[in-house]
Write a structure and sequence with these properties.
The protein is mainly α. The protein has a single domain (14-107), classed as Pheromone/general odorant binding protein domain (Recoverin, domain 1). 59% of the residues lie in helices and 0% in strands. The protein has five helices and no strands. It starts with 13 loop residues before the first helix and ends with a helix. InterPro entries: PBP/GOBP (IPR006170), PBP_GOBP_sf (IPR036728). This is Odorant-binding protein 12. It holds the Pfam family PBP_GOBP.
Length: 111
Amino acid sequence: MMISCNKISFVCSLTDDVENLKNRKLPQSKEGKCMMACILKKLNVINKDGKFEVATVKTWMADKYKGNTVKLTRAYARADNCAEQLPAIEDECEFAAKLLECTKKNKKLKS
């Protein structure tokens, strides 16, 4: 399912999703997942075809961990791990949710 971020209507149920995000929890509602898909698309983490742009994320990581090869190597491994683990899902909202779940899960891993 392709979503139009300009036309999607975010309703009151997002209040809980925004609170979840503030508490570093993933959105649970369809609207919250679609909101995250829109954000990830705007950041080019998800491309126009609804796929994970690991190269974009690695560029950010290179800037964030400049000079710290240990953290950079771990971050690259986590990104690659998610790129390999993500299932093919046509619904961009569900794909965004799975991507966020993967990054959260892999953040705890040490490479």
